[in-house]
Amino acid sequence: MPRPADPNARASLISAARAEFVKKGLRGARIEDITAACSLSKGAFYLHFASKEALFGELVEQVQRTLDELAREREERKEC
Length: 80
Description:
4 helices
């Protein structure tokens, strides 16, 4: 019987990848290290992301959304 999918796997991979990219950069980060940091398999990684670069792209998008939200909040404070 197959194991049920971990509902937190995607978030765990993103968190582990963020730390790995900070330490080693995009080139130095390895999928094996990212998955080991959150006790997941490479199969779990590829279930959520097509590649290391796709995961990095997800992180960049998250940062951009955060910056956009902060900019919106700042503009709203200026208007008050």
